[in-house]
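Put briefly, the fold is written as integer tokens. The lines below illustrate.
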Amino acid sequence: MSIPVLELEKADIYQRDNLVLSKVDFTLNKGDFYYLIGKTGSGKSSLLKTLYGDLKLQRGLGNIVGFDLKQMKEKDIPFLRRKLGIVFQDFKLLNDRNVFDNLEFVLKATGWKNKTDIKDKIHEVLEKVGMKEKYYKKTFELSGGEQQRVAIARALLNNPELILADEPTGNLDPKTSLEVMELLNEIHQSGKTILMATHDYQLIVKFKQKTVKCEGGELFEVVQQTV
């Protein structure tokens, strides 16, 4: 049986006062992996920002991991984000801290108290992304690919119901992009639900998944050609 993690119905997505996507109908079920594609400025990032509470849903219906996007108050946003894993193009790591401290900061901010539990969880997620041996390194000492692995580990900390990835390979070279994509695929195969914005069509062709496109103010599903 399909269990919806995200449902949008006739949702209008705004960037400031500009309507960028209108009447969006989209359902993401538990265990799905969808690519979100479209040109720069087509509304991909605005859609993701609406989903994690950075932009308000002004018209239409939206429900994500049990939160009503229309009715959501400012004070609800931290609770929403605990149920989401968010991966950014520019990593958004704290450069003055090492890898372990970056992840500890997130756990403490989301209510974790027990030191042993915190340590165990950090080592668990770092192992998943192949970064356990580098827990003591400052983030600026890591390569771009390693920083993105840490960012993915951070997204996994609170066992999210949905991972939102905004151009996670956008700042990486082709080889590193492939490695990060393989990692995201493994995470998906372990049962996670992923919505990933990307403009890297080579990755989409190599790692085939369902795809939705932002174009001309609309969001629609596109069928990939099978060769």
